[in-house]
Amino acid sequence: MKRLVLAVFFATAIGAAASLTGEILVFGAASLSESLQDAGKQFEANRGGKVVFSFGSSGDLARQIEAGAPADVFFSADTARMDAVEKAGLVKKADRREFLSNALVVIVPSNSTAKLTSARDLESFPKIALADPAAKVPVGLYARQWLTDKGVWSAIELRIIPTLDVRAALAAVAAGDIPVGIVYRTDAAVSKDVKVVYTATDGPPITYSVAPIASSKNAAEAAKFIAFLDSAAGRAIFEKRGFIIK
Length: 246
Hints:
The protein is of the alpha/beta class. Helix content is 41%, strand content 20%. It folds into 2 domains: 2-100 and 207-245, Periplasmic binding protein-like II (D-Maltodextrin-Binding Protein, domain 2), CATH 3.40.190.10; 103-199, 3-Layer(aba) Sandwich (D-Maltodextrin-Binding Protein, domain 2). Helix 2 links the parallel strand 1 and strand 2 (51-56). Helix 1 crosses helix 3 (58-66) and helix 3 packs parallel to helix 4 (79-87).
């Protein structure tokens, strides 16, 4: 609760500053960090308004929005977190756009000799970095579903080292603190200190969801930014970063 209160406080401070300057505040899943920053720069260069970002786990961001954080746009790494915000009356179903997907990968430090041929090989590791599924972090939920379907989750659950978000799991493996982790393919691509040793081609469907917040004071600019993200130019930015366009 204390973490949520502090997060909402800082998000509110950012949002207040954004409102004063006509900027839009985008709450984005951590895995979208580079792509959304690239998109923001291009949007601004094309005479769009100023875009400010707050990145984190979609679960935390959704809770902040529900608690009153003044976001203008929410870009979640799954549809369930967006469903919760919609159920709370904070976004409208008609305004949602869902055109991005991703893939789960298993990563190890770049100097590791570990190899995986199946999900079951995770049972040989003493620790596994994964964004916390108990906190409803989408990548953690996707991974738990995948490993449950493979009959592996119960064997490794106690070995999971839960992290705040997908980037924290990536950092733990990149630093060599944990020998293996599960992240999105796009996250693995941003670090030279990790390598992919397995891709979950049979993992659960991954769907990102973006929508303007209904109470936004910058509704027109928020809608304009989302339209840019879903345009050919916007989609090209995500595709370049390794996302799957639906």
